[in-house]
Write a structure and sequence with these properties.
- It is a single chain.
- 43% of the residues lie in helices and 15% in strands.
- By secondary structure, the chain is of the alpha/beta class.
- Helix 1 crosses helix 12, helix 8 packs across helix 9 and helix 16 packs antiparallel against helix 17.
- The two termini are 35 Å apart.
- The longest helix has 19 residues.
- It folds into two domains: 180 residues, D-Maltodextrin-Binding Protein, domain 2 (3-Layer(aba) Sandwich); 204 residues, 3-Layer(aba) Sandwich (D-Maltodextrin-Binding Protein, domain 2), CATH 3.40.190.10.
- The chain is built from 17 helices and ten strands.
- It comes from Agreia bicolorata.
Length: 408
């Protein structure tokens, strides 16, 4: 298969490829798979790994120079895909992913496929996933006769009943700092029937649904959260739960192993996992792609690059990475395999297997996402502090729309 504008010629023999990506569990597993690929095909895959910020700086320098000295790169979808695609730096992979029925693009979770698609064009293959779940103290719920909450109202009631600030124990811990909280607030927003933007891409954090979601998120932390919540990102909030000082903690499933490490957790034997509770519009937690792999538009070896991506992300290798390196696959078939999921907590596996209604983004969708998070996080701070949520949401919507208009 040839890719318009730079696919490798059928007469060329590709002997090497270069892949650049951020350090992650996936790239750790990739070290072994790259050697296996060379043994099977004779194609050596050179690997270069960086920290996230260093990766983005490196990519921008190389891509601005239209460099062809690398062929494949990992990137963070929600932070750079819009910028990179607008600049013409990402190859269109739509025909590639849809051309091989055995490789089976439809096996990838719908939210993951949505995350790597922009205006109908597929710009990468998702290699890791992360979703919003509810961690809770099974011992405390059982002792108090409280069923595991399945709705946000039930969560509110359970947190209220278990909250005991006089003893330094809190009903719930979550991110409360303005920028870090945005990703976690997103699931509440979706489950209330809202989103950061409407279907036309305009700001929509001033809708009744959004205002109710802000108010509810703020109420949980104001009434049942630890003091100083507005200064807490995930390290601070998760530490409170890990130390045994909170009944509930809602955040990404990638943190599960933090609570299972006796060196850092006092809740190893009592932590349990629940699906994100349903709001008025149902349960709609984020399920995002923290890392995807795409093809450099300036590569002279696009077809060969696709062959490696196709191989490393096939069903067999996805299961291997899930089993051996606990890389959270984007493939449904990986999570359906009991052997591949054996090292994961059973409760977490069940949540992933039964995920429906998930949303493929956890923040506003635009290039200036960092500025947008500053804006849309502000009403949640007002809610936590007991301020005027409606006015804060109205102002945030105006400011967010100005940012969107400026980007257009």
């Amino acid at each position: 298969m040839a890719c318009a504008g730079g696919g490798s010629s059928s007469s060329e023999k590709v002997t090497d490829l270069t892949l650049i990506a951020a350090n992650s569990p996936w790239t750790e597993g990739l070290k072994t798979l790259a050697t296996k690929y060379e043994d099977e095909t004779g194609v050596k895959v050179n690997l270069e790994f960086y920290g996230n910020e260093q990766l983005n700086d490196t990519l921008k320098v190389k891509l601005n120079a239209q460099s062809s000295d690398f062929d494949i790169y990992g990137y963070q979808v929600q932070d750079v895909m819009r910028e990179f695609s607008r600049n013409g730096w990402l190859a269109d992979m739509t025909d590639y992913v849809k051309s091989d029925a055995d490789w089976n693009w439809d096996d990838f979770q719908q939210s993951s496929r949505d995350a790597v698609t922009l205006d109908g064009v597929v710009y990468g293959v998702p290699v890791m996933t992360e979703r919003h779940i509810m961690y809770y103290r099974s011992d405390l719920l059982e002792a108090a006769g409280i069923p595991v909450p399945t709705t946000l109202d039930e969560l509110d009631a359970a947190a209220a009943k278990l909250n005991d600030p006089a003893k330094g124990f809190y009903g719930i811990a979550m991110r409360g700092s303005k920028v870090p909280l945005v990703t976690q607030f997103s699931s509440f927003l979706y489950s209330y029937g809202g989103d950061f933007q409407d279907k036309d891409g305009n700001a929509s954090v001033d809708t009744p649904e959004a205002k109710d979601a802000y108010a509810f998120y703020g109420k949980l932390l104001k009434d049942y959260g630890p003091p100083g919540a507005t200064n807490m990102g995930w390290p601070e909030a998760s530490a409170i739960f890990a130390q045994g000082n909170a009944a509930f903690y809602l955040d990404a499933d990638s943190q599960a192993y933090t609570f299972l490490d006796p060196a850092s957790s006092a809740v190893v034997d009592t932590v349990a996992y629940g699906a994100f509770p349903a709001g008025p519009a149902g349960s709609h937690p984020y399920s995002i792609v923290p890392q995807t792999v795409g093809i450099n538009e300036y590569s002279k070896k696009k077809d060969a690059a696709w062959e490696f991506i196709k191989w490393v992300t096939n069903e067999e290798n996805s299961k291997t990475l899930l089993a051996d390196d606990t890389v959270p696959s984007a493939r449904d078939s990986s999570w359906a395999d009991d052997a591949a999921t054996a090292s994961f907590p059973a409760g977490l596996v069940e949540i992933v297997r039964n995920s429906e209604g998930t949303v493929g983004h956890d923040r506003p969708q635009l290039e200036k996402v960092a500025q947008a998070r500053e804006i849309v996080g502000a009403p949640a701070i007002s809610a936590i502090e007991g301020g005027d949520v409606d006015s804060a949401a109205d102002k945030a919507n105006t400011d967010f729309q100005d940012l969107l208009d400026g980007e257009k």
